[in-house]
């Protein structure tokens, strides 16, 4: 998105000298906005105007990479306030913090637990990808030792939490090659911190006391020629974090306000783990680039949070699907149970599944790959034809080994495909109800009789 | 779509008579009728029958707002009449209109600022209605830059790119559509756009069909508001339908009624 005519006009010298070609600065601004003129045609253009034009062509929020190998992540790079407008692109990193006061053995135990926080959901392995080492001891050597223990015990991406440049320098000597996030540059230390980040080419978190001081500080760091940044407005109270996150996202996208055009880092601060997970879920939903937890350590605690993250960052433009062309069991089906055909559009599949299980039926369901479209859409687009379904049933699934009958039930709306399906599969095709809500009564009144036929 | 009902205008005989006789009834009836049809603003124009004076505008605004709770578009070029209208107006008034001439803007914009009013700016100056969209857009920019300098929010500025009758000025309609698109890019947030819609079909056959068709085209180009015949049901139906197709309103089966209820 380019700058508007009005925004450019305000940055022009207002001399109306005409040397750029057009007679007035206003006319020149409009030509610039339309891409018909170049800024260097103006003899008096200021640095500010040049910066503004550059800002317009840059993405609103920088993308920042951290970590290495399997746990390398990119955060930021977002362009939306609401996911339904396009999508959210880069899932936020979720970290658990470890204190350097805990002692080497306890730290190693904790890391082992964190390493075990993994589960599978809709075919994806989900893990907790980051660990924050916190310099609670205020002692540089203790911190470096703790970072060493953590680094030896996990591959996960590290966040080095200390405002003491000596502690950060010592830790970077050990783990700089793992591209950790340095947390944080503040007003008192930003020159040294920026220097360390630059030397080691690591991302740097900048922390302000509020939004104003944060914006001031990022400007200073950018003036030192470093923009591999993550930002923290300093607030820890949920309501204030929510407000800050929203303002940061709006300013960077809607106003192209460069000092806050970076991914954010947030920290939970709650009395109970349940509250902490709710806080973190809020931050994941509302634009956080990284969320650092301090107490959660059980799978039951982080699983809901990582599930929220996966859901929020699902691309709403792509239909949600179930894995197609395989046999799903509902209840405890046996060799006499009915077999239903539907599509792999998750809304279609789960409607059928819900009505089958809701009717306390035991059955098999085969979702056919229609690229995630519904029954009628798939049929109209030639993705749900009798020949294709027959081939998938007999060649790609083991349904023939699971039942001792050869009767398959298709959605009533596509009764017309039954002939081709019979031909291709060799099965008897029963036309089910048009709506899956009719499945329980259909089975109750028809299935026994059909089986005997 | 912001519908500005055009009917309270002294050039219509019933309203002209009512103003002359200081009879509020026909004016108030049309105020209610237009709002029920889907209008949110009521244009008020004294018309040719009586002198366009501050007193008449003041009376007109008071008569309308005694009956209904709706903003009035003060349709006059007489600055004293505008100020008189603003003084008695309840809520956010709209001023209809100014051109891009600097001396007019210098006089009017402080009033717009003081009363936090909305302003319709015509994309023209004393040299007349521009032929092409570039010149129209440049005039619009003149108005916008001046308004911005007075600290008036862009959302309060309505740029009118000036549609002319299709039977005698056919080449203007596509230029107007292009101007609407361009004006939306001039500032962020963008200024609003408005049309004096009925002008497109002056003295043409099938006036309603022409109005309705151009309305839908202009909405696709980004039009925000229209001064129009609010009681033309086919026109309002077309607007409601266009809002659905542009994704501005969420579809429901009763979308024609919903549009009238919520606007």
Automatic annotation (TrEMBL), chain A:
Chain positions recorded as 5-methoxybenzimidazolylcob(I)amide binding sites: 342, 372-375
Family matches, as InterPro entries: 4Fe-4S_dom, Ac-CoA_synth_d_su_TIM-brl, ACDS_complex_subunit, AcylCoA_decarb/synth_gsu, Dihydropteroate_synth-like_sf
Keywords for this protein: 4Fe-4S, Cobalt, Iron, Iron-sulfur, Metal-binding
Residues noted as binding [4Fe-4S] cluster in the record, renumbered to the chain: 17, 20, 25, 42
SUPFAM superfamilies reported for this sequence: Dihydropteroate synthetase-like
All copies of domain 4Fe-4S, residue ranges: 1-59
GO molecular function, one term: methyltransferase activity
One GO term of the biological process aspect: acetyl-CoA catabolic process
Gene3D superfamilies registered for this protein in UniProt: 3.40.50.11600, Dihydropteroate synthase-like
Name under which the protein is recorded: CO-methylating acetyl-CoA synthase corrinoid iron-sulfur protein large subunit
Organism: Selenihalanaerobacter shriftii
TrEMBL record, chain B:
Protein name, as recorded: Methyltetrahydrofolate--corrinoid iron-sulfur protein Co-methyltransferase
Domain Pterin-binding: 1-246
Molecular function per GO: cobalamin binding; metal ion binding; methionine synthase activity
Cited InterPro entries: Dihydropteroate_synth-like_sf (IPR011005), Met_Synthase/Corrinoid (IPR050554), Pterin-binding_dom (IPR000489)
Species, as recorded: Selenihalanaerobacter shriftii
Classification lineage: Bacteria, Bacillati, Bacillota, Clostridia, Halanaerobiales
Transmembrane annotation, as ranges: none
Alphabetic keyword roster: Cobalamin, Cobalt, Metal-binding, Methyltransferase, Transferase
Family, as annotated: Belongs to the vitamin-B12 dependent methionine synthase family.
GO biological process: homocysteine metabolic process; methylation; tetrahydrofolate metabolic process
Classification via NCBIfam families: PRK07535.1 (NF005719)
Superkingdom: Bacteria
One Pfam match: Pterin_bind
One CC-aspect GO term: cytosol
């Amino acid at each position: 998105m380019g700058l508007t005519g009005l925004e450019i006009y305000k940055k022009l010298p207002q001399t109306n000298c005409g040397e750029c070609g057009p007679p007035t600065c206003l006319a020149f601004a409009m030509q610039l906005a339309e891409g018909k003129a170049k800024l260097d045609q103006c003899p008096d253009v200021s640095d500010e105007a040049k910066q503004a034009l550059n800002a317009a062509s840059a993405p609103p929020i920088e993308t920042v990479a951290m970590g290495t190998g399997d746990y390398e992540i990119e955060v930021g790079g977002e362009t939306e306030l609401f996911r339904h407008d396009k999508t959210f692109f880069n899932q936020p990193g979720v970290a658990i913090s470890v204190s350097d006061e805990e002692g080497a053995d306890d730290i190693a135990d904790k890391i082992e637990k964190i390493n075990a926080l993994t589960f599978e959901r809709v075919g994806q392995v989900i893990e907790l990808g980051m660990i924050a080492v916190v310099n609670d001891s205020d002692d540089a050597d203790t911190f470096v030792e703790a970072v060493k223990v953590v680094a030896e015990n996990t591959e996960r991406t590290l966040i080095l939490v200390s405002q003491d440049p000596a502690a950060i320098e010592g830790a970077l000597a050990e783990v700089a090659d793992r591209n950790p996030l340095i947390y944080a540059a503040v007003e008192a230390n930003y020159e040294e911190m920026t220097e360390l980040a630059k030397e080691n080419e690591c991302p740097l978190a900048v922390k302000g006391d509020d939004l104003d001081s944060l914006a001031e500080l990022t400007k200073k760091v950018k003036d030192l020629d470093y923009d591999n940044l993550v930002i923290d407005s300093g607030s820890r109270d949920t309501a204030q974090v929510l407000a800050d996150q929203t303002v940061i996202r709006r300013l960077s996208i809607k106003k192209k306000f460069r000092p806050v055009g970076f991914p954010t880092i947030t920290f939970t601060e709650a009395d109970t783990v349940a509250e902490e997970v709710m806080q973190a879920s809020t931050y994941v939903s509302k634009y956080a680039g990284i969320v650092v937890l301090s107490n959660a350590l059980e799978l039951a605690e982080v699983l809901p949070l990582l599930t929220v993250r996966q859901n929020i960052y699902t691309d709403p433009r792509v239909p949600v699907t179930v894995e197609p062309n395989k046999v799903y069991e509902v209840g405890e089906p046996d060799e006499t149970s009915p077999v239903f055909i539907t599509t792999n559009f998750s809304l279609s599949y789960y409607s059928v599944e819900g009505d089958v299980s809701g009717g306390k039926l035991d059955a098999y369901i085969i979702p056919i790959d229609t690229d995630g479209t519904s029954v009628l859409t798939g049929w109209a687009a030639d993705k749900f034809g009798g020949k294709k379904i027959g081939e998938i049933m007999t060649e790609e699934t083991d349904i023939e080994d699971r039942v001792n009958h050869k009767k398959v039930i298709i959605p009533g709306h596509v009764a017309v495909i039954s002939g081709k399906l019979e031909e291709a599969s060799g099965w008897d095709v029963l036309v089910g109800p048009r709506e899956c809500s009719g499945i329980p009564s259909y089975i109750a009144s028809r299935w026994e009789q059909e089986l005997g036929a | 779509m912001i519908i500005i009902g055009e009917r309270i205008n002294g050039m219509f005989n019933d309203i002209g008579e009512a103003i002359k006789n200081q009879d509020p009834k026909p004016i108030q009836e049309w105020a209610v009728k237009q709002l029920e049809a889907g209008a949110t603003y009521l244009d008020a124009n004294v018309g040719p029958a009586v002198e366009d004076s501050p007193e008449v505008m003041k009376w007109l605004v008071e008569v309308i707002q005694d009956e209904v709770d709706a903003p009035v578009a003060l349709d006059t070029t007489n600055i004293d009449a505008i100020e008189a209208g603003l003084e008695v107006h309840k809520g956010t008034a709209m001023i209809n209109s100014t051109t891009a001439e600097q001396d007019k803007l210098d006089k009017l914009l402080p009033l717009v600022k003081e009363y936090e009013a909305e302003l319709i700016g015509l994309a023209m100056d004393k040299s007349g209605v521009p032929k092409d969209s570039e010149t129209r857009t440049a005039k619009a920019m003149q108005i916008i830059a001046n308004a911005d300098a007075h600290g008036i929010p862009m959302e309060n500025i309505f740029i009118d790119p000036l549609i002319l009758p299709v039977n005698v000025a056919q080449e203007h309609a596509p230029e107007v559509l292009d101007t609407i698109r361009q004006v939306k890019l001039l500032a962020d947030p963008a200024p609003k756009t408005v049309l004096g819609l009925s002008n497109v079909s002056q003295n043409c056959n099938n006036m309603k069909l022409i109005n309705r068709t151009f309305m839908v085209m202009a909405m696709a180009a980004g039009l925000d508001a229209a001064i129009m015949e609010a009681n033309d049901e086919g026109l309002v139906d077309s607007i409601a339908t266009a809002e659905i197709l542009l994704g501005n309103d969420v579809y429901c089966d009763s979308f024609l009624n919903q549009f009238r209820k919520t606007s």
